[in-house]
Amino acid sequence: METRINKYLSEAGFCSRREADRLIDEERVTVNGKIPEKGQKVTEEDLIRVDDKVILKNVKMIYIALYKPVGIISTTDPTIENNIVDFLNHPKRLFHVGRLDKQSEGLIFMTNDGDIVNKILRAGNFHEKEYIVKVHKEITDKFIHAMGNGIPIMDTITKKCYVEQLNDFEFKIILVEGMNRQIRKMCDYLGYKVYRLKRIRIMNIDLDIAKGKWRYLTEEEMIEMNKLIEQSSKTEEASK
User: Fold this and answer.
1) Domains, the chain
2) Which of 51, 52, 86, 101 is catalytic?
3) d(Cα 171, Cα 232) in Å, to the nearest integer?
4) Which sign does the torsion angle of CA 19, 61, 125, 154 carry?
5) Is residue 46 annotated as a catalytic residue, yes or no?
6) Distance CA 97, CA 117 (A)
7) Rg, C-alpha atoms of the chain
8) Chain segment 74-110, per-residue pLDDT in tens
9) Which neighbouring-strand residues pair with 82?
């Protein structure tokens, strides 16, 4: 069965489709000894290499929930200090699902399943992510209403979302999209500075581990997650 080479690499647990496209652009991937074109189709009979390492499928899929502390950077680039891969220090090659910026903490997934990365990240699939946010000044009803009804940032307006005030300086927010530093930019627009940002849930997985620790997702959690994403797109657009 033929499949696009970026999908082959993601299903083999080597990297995400987006990362695979980057590796192809950098001519670090070969198919039967030749540099492939982006989008080229391959089969399991082909010899696929990345940096001269043979990539085989039938790899056991790994799914991890990590409590990322402040200061750890969501990148797989080994040249960047305090990158999340080195922090996790797992014996298998894993990559992160989505991002938490350096100043933020909380739940993040690590996996070698490139296909699930695409389906979770695609905003159109409405996969919830829940955060607790502390700001530098007292929260008003006007602030809560504005945050929940859409903020103009990054040449668009954020989707309506659930926002609940927890105390004078903290609120809970549930997003189904994931723009870069979205919550911080939403708060900035309203004149608030984020003092602390913590992600406490992704879809059906709650943050239930100590800071800096990790655990494997359970079989029951994966069954529920797959139910939530079973309608997710498997097209190339899902990785863009």
Assistant:
1) 3-54 (3.10.290.10), 63-115+207-239 (3.30.70.580), 128-202 (3.30.70.1560)
2) 101
3) 30
4) negative
5) no
6) 5
7) 19
8) 998 889 999 999 999 998 888 898 889 999 999 999 9
9) none
